[in-house]
Amino acid sequence: MLSPDGRAQEAPRDFAKRIQLPIADTRLLIRALTHRSYLNEHPEALEDNERLEFLGDAVLDFVVGGWLYNHFPEKSEGEMTRLRAALVRTETLGEFGAQLGLGNALRLGRGEEEGGGRHRPAMLCATFEALVGALYLDAGLEAVQGFIDPIVEEAVVAITNGEGDRDPKSQLQEWVQARGHEAPLYRIAAESGPDHDKFFEVEVVVGGAVIARGTGKNKQVASKAAARLALHKLSQQTEKLGK
Description:
It contains eleven helices and three strands. The protein is mainly alpha-helical and 243 residues long.
């Protein structure tokens, strides 16, 4: 299926499989990805994701708070509160959604689609929360923790190292060169949409292998998204090899 601007839209099940989201109830998954604008144009769709968003917001506060409590026994209540606020703010959750490629799986009405809803941080944040709410209802708190903990851990490292605002491409280059590889190569994998509203998909190559792909409304945004996802994947691989 294609979105109104001609981009391929990822099916809910394909999206869940790609990001390893352990949710069995397809109806819940579809609801989590459905914005209220979609209902106006598709009368067969019965419910949007706003109630799941409400639930996911509360679950995220709890899970992130628990993670911080268990991993930082030396931090005060105030320090943990500030760190949790940095992790669950709209911009951060929207970034999590972008890293997962959530925008391509959204079910939007034409107006939201044409207005760039797939890439809007607030939209990605709300849908990420809805996914967490759906996962909680379907598989319980332990499944949410398993899904969220690695994402939170990476974000906390960046925040506590003062790297939250650093260019992910610079971080990736430092990471791979420190391990004896040449600098990452970025290349356009696909582009679509009209000239006034282009959409790019960029892949990052390390050691001759495609590590990750990122998407965005310009090449720079797409490249940063690819670098950010590559950092996440490579760090996870390193952790597994070290165990």
